[in-house]
């Protein structure tokens, strides 16, 4: 059984990545040095590590959750904003394992393009993909959501004014 | 075409929604608590109006009286409306306080079950809010607050 220790640096609440090892999600814990650590065990000689960033607007039921949120938050008044930048991480690399495996993953500052992470390890590895990019689909959904909200707000304001005028008139 | 490895995992999506719900309820909790407080402490709303009015006079170097000649009377009318609003909340305080108490509890549950992010500051704020609201409710039941 081989143990792999992953150390993730430069993470903040905005980045919040999802890490999978051979398709299995792994959970990181914050250590006293403000970095995150995750450990996993495997019998394999090589593992595939994938780092992604989930956007709320990338989900299958994004429209349903957005609608429920809009209603509960009193027509968006108390709603936290959706991520406007829609930057996602596309990072995938293969790692050849030894008896002891220490991998340091440094996250770069989020940007519209460029390398997402820097990997430091004594193991042999091959990067398949490593970049930050703007998710165009999520960006379109964000625009659709904003326009829908604007239309709804106009309708709500018109209706409110109509009812107030009617009430005052009586 | 950009190749993406993103897995739209239903669990992650639902978790993000629950967190969003927790944040919405947190925001509403703060406002509902302020409304309850303005009902009990009617002078809070009136004082807030006076402070805002005073700031407007200072910031505009008194020119606000030129722009709005009846600024003084507008000011006093707003204060009297705030007293009426306070009276409304005070009359229905036994409806508003339980609502204001349930919201932060739901919000806290939503934020605590989020495994991806920690919401320590929000949870602490909610705990304080719940404690204050329980004290307010006890005060009303016992009759300390009238």
Task: Provide an overview of this structure.
The complex is a heterodimer of chains A (170) and B (146). Chain A is of the alpha+beta class and 170 residues long. Chain A has one domain. Chain A has a five-stranded mixed beta sheet with strand order 4-5-1-8-9, with no helix packed on it. Chain A has a five-stranded antiparallel beta sheet with strand order 3-2-6-7-10. In chain A, strand 2 and strand 3 form a beta hairpin. The longest helix of chain A has 34 residues. The radius of gyration of chain A is 22 Å and the shape is elongated. Chain A starts with a strand and ends with a helix. With 146 residues, chain B is mainly α. Chain B has one domain. Helix content of chain B is 80%, strand content 0%. Chain B is built from six helices and no strands.
Instruction: Give the tally of β-strands of chain A.
Output: 10
Determine the N-to-C terminus distance of chain B: 67 Å
Strands of chain B, count: 0
How many domains, in number, for the residues of chain B? Answer: 1
Terminal CA distance of chain A reads 81 Å
Binned strand content of chain A: 35-45%
Q: What general form of chain B does the structure show?
A: flat
Radius of gyration of chain B: 21 Å
Largest binding interface between chains = A-B, 33 and 24 residues
Strand content of chain B: under 5%
User: What is the 3D form of chain A?
Assistant: elongated
Oligomer: heterodimer
Order of helices and strands of chain B: HHHHHH
Uncertain stretches of chain A: none
The residue fraction in helices of chain B comes out at over 70%
Secondary-structure blueprint:
The complex is a heterodimer of chains A (170) and B (146).
Chain A: E1 2-9, E2 17-21, E3 24-26, E4 29-30, E5 36-42, E6 46-53, H1 62-72, E7 87-96, E8 100-107, E9 117-121, E10 125-134, H2 136-169
Parallel strand pairs in A: 1-8
Antiparallel strand pairs in A: 1-5, 2-3, 2-6, 4-5, 6-7, 7-10, 8-9
Chain B: H1 10-40, H2 42-59, H3 64-67, H4 71-91, H5 93-112, H6 120-142
Helix pairs in contact in B: 1-2, 1-4, 1-5, 1-6, 2-4, 5-6
